[in-house]
Amino acid sequence: MSQIRNISLLLALILIFSHSMAQSDQFKKASGGQTRGANQRSPKDTVKFVMKTYKLLDEMTRAEEVKVDTSINNYQNYHPELQNSITVQSLGNFGSAYQSNNFFQRADFNNSFLFFRNYSEYGIWANQNIYYNVTKPYTLLEYGQWFANKPNGETWLKVFHTQNIGQKLNFGIIYNSISSQGKYLNQEAKVRNIGFFSSYNNDRYDYWFALSKNQFDNDENGGLPQPDDIKNPDLKPENLPVWLNGANTIMDNLSVVFSHQYKLGSWKEVKEKDESFEIFIPRVTLMHTFELTNAKRKYTETEPNPYYTYSDDRGQVFYYGKDHIPCINGETGTENEPATIDRSAMNRLSNRFYIRFVEAPDRKYTFGKQVFIGNDIIKVKFPRDIVTSGDSILGLTDSEKYSNTFVGGSIYRSKGQFWNWNASGKYFIQGRNSGDFEVKADIDKPIVIFKDTTVLKLRGEMVNSTPNYFYERYFSNHYKWDQNLDKTYRLTVGGSYESPKLKVKAGANYSVINKYVFVNEDVKPEQAGSAFSVMQIYLQKDFKAGGWNFLNKVMFQQPTSQDYLHIPQLVVMNSSFYEGLLAKVLSFQIGFDVRYETEYYADKYSPALGLFYLQNDEKIGSFPWIDAYINLRLKRTRFYIKYSNLGTLFMDGGYFTSPGYPAQIAAPSFGLSWSFYD
């Protein structure tokens, strides 16, 4: 009931704002600056809907346009972690922990809260916000669920609204939720996100503001003690034994970002047709960015070392090991008084100051330049390293505060027709990360070949970074370490070539890593004893024949050492569908998706730590993931019907997304999306 009440309140606020702040101004022309002196008033009924979307790059100083996909292509793929990667490792339930199997998509999280790395695609993050400018209020409602939603189904909901007040001021609100009970015991996942953003763009002054609140609430079952149980047709998923009962992880994040700038420049008179008006051309900007993040995690469990009794000679096997001794409390607890209450947190306050020399749109040979200085104040928390009698110590935390000061700069060309490029650098001059540096560069070069504007992209990155704080110091009821790790050095180069006419995209990435940090088989962070490299090549080629479409992706990746990193070597994906138009108004697609990855020693997952860790005992993969679907679009409404994981209907087991964690069995689902701006 509380969720329904919150959604109703949100929709009521959207309707109030939409009707009380109607808009009648169209966008000014895209000229790189502001205009004055022109008559821009239009009758309300002639205003066309225009939406511009952009995000902030380069330490949140440079705007780049992004596209919002409103087509029905791939609409059936509603899992956000699979929208950006063709292969992921997960716990098999929507909203649970995952990691991308594309090595070059794994984030480092060096100065962030480490335990969010496995939930990043499920959250709304203030520092990654997309900003809008619209001529009419725009609202998007999306909803999806399994057909048999109770008692073991899943639902998801998205509510988005944005509108302008005049031409310069925009605001928006976002609400997302996931509720997934899952087919197996003790794997319920709940995700709640809410965000608010606003931007103001004037001739002299701009600001961008974003606030986000995320909560991830997951029951943890630890996987199946007997994975072969899924092959038994007499056992239903909800009756299979699992490792953990009464274990739960709750994580919260509150982030605020405020970035603003004052622009120095001049007005320039422009004549267009019979009109004369002035455009403000910014030359230099003074900019400040403020960021505040509060992140925390709590893990609780009733049994400090659960066990499972096998019917063979293995006998009793303990989840944390036969000789495991909990660090704080080894007594069995209850739901109200758990045996384990592990709390960890990170608070970060960041300020950055910039001087930018703006890329001038009225000059032929120009590029942007900027320098900055910044400071982070970070406070971390984790359970106290004290063993006492009784439970009074549970949930209490130690804390440590440290800071970093850094300087940097960049040069860039983003409005050129011949090419666009960007080069940036950052160096830490003080604090825990003193001596860290990163240098990045990328080039986008359009190449016209037989009237096809192809694009060649090259990039390079060199990073020397201090490992995440929690890799060096951590204490909980099950794991503890206090160690000093060396800086990790990583050199990455890559490139891609894309031809829209031929519908092909190909690329390669190569990375050399020294002092790589991973979580070893003993569930403890360790540093690689030698340097190694990872090579990746990928190809995407689409074919169309009449109404038939065949979208194909292939990715091959190979590390030079299997001692520190396990990823699938080959991943293949195909989406085949027939599309058409019914009654001249209803667009449709009917087809299926197939994804396959070779066998590999996938990482195991530790619920108590909240991270994946290396293992060399069990392989997963070599299983075809097959989904059948129908996508429909009628004006502004999109709809899908999907039957997921059809392979479980005719194949005997093998459908694991992590060791001990099977995927959900075949199930139908549907979803719809409705956008309106009248």
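Second entry:
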Amino acid sequence: QPDSPALHLSSVLTEDKGVVTFKGKVEIDVEKIIPYIEPFIPLPKEIPSVTGNIQASWTGALPQNVFLPSVVTHPERELDGTIRLNLDIPHIVEMGKDISITLDIQFSAKNNRALWNMSEQSRVSGHVSLAELPVLDHLIENNIPKQADVTLTVKEPLRGEATWTEESLTAHVKGRIDVLVHTRDPVVRVRASFLEGSINNGNEIGGKGTFDVSGSWPDLVVKSGKAASIQWDCGGEWNGNQQEWQAKIVQGCVLSAKGVRVAQAAIPHMRVTVLQPMEARWEGLTQNWKVESIKLNIQMPQIHWDDHIIGLGSSTLQLQEVQGTAQSLVHTQGEMVVLGMTLSPQEGIQIPPLNGKMGFVGSSESVTVNVLAQIPQWQVTAKARARHEITTNQGGAVWAVAPVIFSPTTFSLSQLISPWPHPFDVTSGQVSATGKVSWELPSGPHNGEVFRYQGGATVEGKGLSGVIQKFLVEDVNFVGTVTKGEAWEMSEPATITIQSINPGIPVRDISLEAKIIQDDSEDL
């Protein structure tokens, strides 16, 4: 064909002993060729213009008698060549602008097998509009980045191989393509590397690579709360296909946040660090997901709950697994260890730091929790087991405080609180307690509903001795049970026995009953 400003094509064919050898090249000015091809292949309405050029060269051989429809599958054909493409798309309506595409490919095909090599000069870049992309609006409600800079670069030559028949196609590619996504407001950076990929039977597509995400997000609002700012830095490996994706998050990933509010809790600052690699899996057909081997260090110096301040020392959260669907949590199991928790003073009493361990199993229907708490300074150990039914918002728990043993040489009641304000002390014996509680949480908008609970506790003292107003008291024993329904009450008085009180002259074998009553002012 004749040369033109839009197209230059040259091709030579020769025949020798029944074999046709051909070679040629083509150069196309895309902007100038569009008016000629648009009547037959119009540009999409979203792409008003395209500029750039396409260059291709080829050499090959075919048997002289091959029919054109069977060229692709004919076992004796040969084809080698190069493709170089440079395109600039100034604007794609509602999607992006300044799109630049550069490709440099060498290929070779013979006997239903093709090899190709994409050089490091290949890249794609541009500005992509994120505002038009589908976003989980139930997850993120504001401050969405409006635009992202996207760059796709071949970092290591991409080498591929494909074989095919009339019924199927199998291909494999290996190399390194880096995809970098960067937003400025808020600042988010995502880099994913494609290292290897494959196609089997034309429809089973898979690949693997690495990823690295970092950034900061101010004024984040989600369904369950909000944060004034959040920052993260994490990376790992990924692999998968259209049926299943897997990711391995590396040790050392960090998430930090400031000004977090969840329900009634406010957290001024928190930092979460991944302590061991963890694996995540997503099944595309069922939309099931699963995360395994989760071990996190959680640093939350303070939690503000209404008017109370809870201080946390070192916390570790370990989950054997967490799994669910796109819409709900299905199952989770793990434990959390907290060391050095402090509470704000209660009724003027400062509770010493406590340590806790919580094991839990949860699903979309219920959560079961086992708790072990210790106050080393007070030599107090407590256990609890609780279960909450998510579907009904109702739950219950049983708890027990192990016997607290007093000793005149090592541990007395007055050592629990300093300064001790009361005119009595317990220097020997033991006290223990058990109890249970049930509750119902408000569902949906509160509409004036409040947290409702009922239950009871039994306190038992054995062999208690000490002093009251400097009078010696020996061997006090008691058992008392108090319950909470509409009000606090004791169905039976507590029986108290005292071996002796010595205000100067011993008084022995004392027995009495005591009962706690809640009056109309709700005071006990």
